[in-house]
Amino acid sequence: MPVEHAHLVISRELKAGSYPGDLLGLLEELDVEEKIDLMQRLSETDAALIFQEMEDFEQAAILPHLDDERAKIIFGSMASDDAADMLGELAPEEAEQILQLIDEDERIDFGGLLRYPEDSAGGIMTTEFISLPADIAVEEAISRLREIAPEAETIYYVYVVNNEGRLIGVLSLRDLITSSDGTLLKNIMRSNVISVNVGLDQEEVARVVSKYDLLAVPVVDDQGRLLGIVTVDDVIDVMEQEATEDIYRFAGVSEVEGMDLTEASVNKIVRLRLPWLLISMAGGILAGSVIGVYEDTLHAIVMLAAFIPVIMDMGGNVGTQSSTIFVRGIATGDIDSSEVWPYLYREIQIGIAMGLICGVLISFVAYFWEGNPYLGLVVGIAMLSTISVAALIGTLVPMLCNMVNIDPAITSGPFVTTIKDVIGLLIYFVIASAFLEYLR
Q: By 3-state DSSP, what share of the chain in percent is helix, strand and coil, each rounded to 5?
């Protein structure tokens, strides 16, 4: 779509009341230079609305190339946490160039946000919140709220602080509106405030917001001073980001942050994906060497080879199921540290039950296929053992990694599959060798 046409459509749709996020599809066919041109053509208000809906890496590619006045207006319209995320995507000299466009006080605020890790509560919080002292009356609080609300990201909660800035209470907008004039905030606030430390991991912040059904959660330092808030829209972004990272890691691709998969170079994608494929290939070679050790067994009973794929596939499916469910349970908090060993024991029971059912079925298939009950017995026992071991490995490997603070999602996919394949083949051929004289 030509830039001129995108400009006309976006201007018309925004004027008609369309939501800016719904118009991003118009930019998909534009390259970076064309997006910069579009941001220059749109009115400052429209450009700011569209810009705020873009991904931070897109914003970082565009903002430094806009004229100073337009860049200042767009940057100033962004929520502090979103602006900090975007600055984090820029080279240091580009970030400094943007910061020079705003007042010194605002630069200090951004400097504070940028010092926190981007995946921590401090890295995703906004400093645009409302806090009031405890000893003012409701009517005064509402009056102050009218003055400062336009600058806040959300006004659903009013936080109450003492003279040192420590968080001592919270009340909702409903609490304010329904209270009688003359009532002091300290008499209607809730003193048991749910808050998070500024250094807490963003995934844990998301769990807190989800657990307590909050629209925003306050962020405090080690002394309990209120530094900012994390709003529910940022939590949704965190959940999407964490889920995306886990999915990529399951597939054996760990470095995906800030990368546009449709525009990234072939070389970069190859560098990300090839190492994990090489790990899988090494596992396949190791599994092949196991088959080579039992080559004489295969030559003696060729029918054994026919059941290798189904046994390996069933083991792989069970291992993937077990690791996926465990990693997801850890990520969502459904499985905590006190429950991992009981969960492992339960998963072993599940693996044995599924293996027993599948083993009985495949043994009947093998028997009727070849008419040899011992072949059915070997294949059935191998199926039972492989599925049981796969359930154990699929849970145990990520569980142990989680205990030593390694992301368990990384252990899924290539690692669990490789371990399971080698052990599964060993089980199959050891059992077959034990019954070899009955299989001839």
A: 70, 10, 20
Complete edge-to-edge strand list for the sheet that includes strand 226-231: 196-197, 216-220, 226-231
pLDDT digits (tens, 9 = 90+) for 349-362: 999 999 999 999 99
Pick the closest to residue 188 from 139, 147, 230 (CA basis): 139
Q: How far apart are CA 287 and CA 244, in angstroms?
A: 31
E strand or H helix at 69 = helix 68-77
pLDDT in tens, 145-202: 888 877 666 778 899 999 999 999 999 888 888 899 899 999 999 999 999 999 999 8
Q: Give CA–CA dist 218/229, Å, rounded.
A: 4
Determine the 3-state secondary structure of 407 from DSSP: coil
> Which domains can be identified in the chain, with CATH numbers?
3-115 (1.25.60.10), 131-235 (3.10.580.10), 266-439 (1.10.357.20)
pLDDT category of residue 258 using cuts at 50, 70 and 90? very low
Residue for token pair 């300290």 = 186
What beta strand segments (E) does 182-329 contain? 196-197, 216-220, 226-231
> Which pLDDT score is estimated for 257?
46
Would the pTM count as exceeding 0.85? no
